[in-house]
């Protein structure tokens, strides 16, 4: 796959940064961002993430699990199996909670609203963007907003660093990160078939929120890589590849006994 996207068929939105952050007063619509539709392979409903570069014929080792690790993996896989259902009140409430965490001073006009583009969804109905990541991708975003609100807001409002004119859309990038983590940790397998996946399950057995925490680390690391590479929206695949390599390297360091020991954890701010 071409690292710089192309005509892959998936739709995306690119966010043009007009001013630093989102200046929100009493109006319902900010003038600080402009959302532009386009076509590329790296973001969108198909979520054709560059991380899925695997042939079914590849030989993989299998790692045995403890009973505790197996149970934790099954619970995480149960979360992964939940699709976002816009008819369910609890899913509707989770989406409203995400909005309130992102823009506490701006009233949401509805679950289908042009306002959602301000967060970096592709259109006025965020539910269409959850197909690749499922409900767990919404849970990941909520965990990020609740546990690391400063970093969440910094990434949402693009408040740090010398940024490109055309920025990645925050929310859809978040769904991509959920999708990437599921892949690199090999979480859909009955048993992990990679050392990275087996290592992660040790952390999961100690902390059932390990996947959500690693999501926060990965999101912040992606943005850190984005700034370091002076990236613009067509570089998203390249940045995601670099993020994956960096994250895998950190997870396999010998001195890492918990996710908080990862060097990239220090990038997060509460």
Which key phrases capture this entry?
three-stranded antiparallel beta sheet, mainly alpha, 3 strands, 41% helix, 270 residues, single chain
3D architecture notes:
With 270 residues, the chain is mainly alpha-helical. It is 41% helix and 6% strand. It has eight helices and three strands, in the order ββααααβαααα. α1 (67-80) crosses α6, α2 (89-102) runs parallel beside α3 and α3 packs across α4. The chain is globular.
Query: What general form does the structure show?
Result: globular
SSE order? EEHHHHEHHHH
Portion of residues in beta strands equals: 5-15%
Q: Structural class, please?
A: mainly alpha
The major β-sheet equals:
3 strands, antiparallel
User: Segments where pLDDT lies below 50 for 5+ residues?
Assistant: 1-57
Helix content: 40-55%
Number of strands: 3
Distance between the termini: 37 Å
Continuous helix count: 8
Taking all Cα atoms into account, the compactness measure Rg is 18 Å
Strand order of the largest sheet: 2-1-3
The overall average pLDDT, rounded, is: 82
């Amino acid at each position: 796959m071409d690292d710089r996207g192309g005509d892959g068929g998936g739709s995306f939105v690119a966010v043009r940064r007009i001013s630093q952050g989102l200046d929100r007063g009493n109006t319902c619509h900010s003038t600080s961002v402009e959302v532009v539709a386009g076509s590329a392979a790296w973001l969108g409903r198909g979520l054709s993430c560059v991380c899925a570069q695997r042939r079914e014929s590849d030989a993989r080792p299998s790692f045995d699990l403890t009973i505790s690790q197996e149970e934790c993996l099954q619970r995480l896989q149960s979360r992964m199996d939940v699709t976002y259902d816009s008819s369910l009140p609890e899913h509707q409430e989770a989406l409203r909670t995400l909005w309130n965490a992102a823009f506490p001073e701006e009233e949401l006009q509805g679950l289908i609203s042009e306002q959602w583009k301000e967060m970096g969804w592709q259109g006025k109905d965020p539910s269409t963007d959850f197909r690749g990541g499922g409900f767990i991708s919404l849970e990941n975003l909520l965990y990020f907003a609740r546990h690391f609100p400063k970093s969440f807001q910094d990434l949402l409002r693009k408040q740090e660093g010398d940024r490109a004119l055309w920025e990645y859309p925050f929310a859809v990038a978040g769904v991509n990160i959920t999708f990437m983590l599921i892949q690199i940790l090999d979480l859909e397998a009955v048993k992990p078939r990679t050392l990275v996946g087996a290592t992660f399950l040790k952390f999961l057995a100690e902390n059932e929120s390990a996947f959500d925490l690693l999501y926060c680390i990965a999101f912040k690391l992606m943005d850190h890589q984005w700034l370091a590479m002076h990236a613009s929206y067509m570089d998203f695949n390249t940045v995601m590849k670099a993020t994956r390599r960096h994250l895998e390297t950190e997870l396999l360091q010998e001195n890492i006994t918990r996710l908080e020991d990862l060097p990239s954890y220090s990038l997060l701010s509460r």
